[in-house]
Amino acid sequence: PGVGDSALAATQKRLSAIYEANQTISNERDLKKVFANVVDLLFSLVPASNGVIMLADPRTGELNGAYERTGGKQAEIRVSSTIVKQAFNDREAVLVADALEDERFDASASITTGNIASVMCVPLMVQGEPVGVIYVDTRGTKNAFKQNDLELMLALAGPAAIAIKNAQYVTQLENDFQTTLRLLASAIELRDHYTVGHTWRVTN
């Protein structure tokens, strides 16, 4: 096969992977499985050393690590907070070919200490609002990511964000249901002190 055929085959492979991922992600309600599916797919399609999903705290807006995967030997993943904040605050995808030379980030401590070379970071958006970011990088390998890698990541971010939000809703509903049960049980116990503990045993 020629170069054109190889490029077409690679594009078809990516489109097929995105389609399958969307089907899997959209039907998943377990947050950890959603995270794993998204990051595992990225690792299978782009040359990433590390992958991190960060979610914003609903109360403070602060980004916290929700899931991470490393392909290297480091025990701890250090992400570039400058890049992450830009993607989240500006609601835009960020592609960095050479982090040490990119003037936008001024070789921050996390970049130099972590030996971060190439980076992609995209916001997770739901109804125009960012709920988190997906971040991948390489260690020591410059120009590892191309524009089509960033486009792939963006294609995954949309359904991933919706799936994450849905899973959060399900978790919140389950928590609210458990709280309602506890309140009902307490109210019943208060009505008749002779049955103290009986409702809790039945509920459990």
Could you characterize what this model shows?
α1 runs antiparallel to α2, α1 runs parallel beside α5 and α2 runs antiparallel to α5 (147-191). The protein is of the alpha+beta class. The chain has helices at 3-26, 31-45, 81-90, 109-113, 147-191, 198-203, and strands at residues 50-56, 63-70, 94-96, 116-126, 129-139. β1 (50-56) and β2 (63-70) form a beta hairpin. The mean pLDDT is 79. 29% of the residues are buried. It contains 6 helices and 5 strands. It has a 5-stranded antiparallel beta sheet with strand order 2-1-5-4-3, with helices on both faces.
Report the order of strands and helices: HHEEHEHEEHH
Cα gyration radius (Å): 22 Å
The parts where pLDDT drops under 50 for at least 5 residues are none
Strand order within the widest beta sheet: 2-1-5-4-3
Which sheet architecture does the biggest sheet show?
Answer: 5 strands, antiparallel
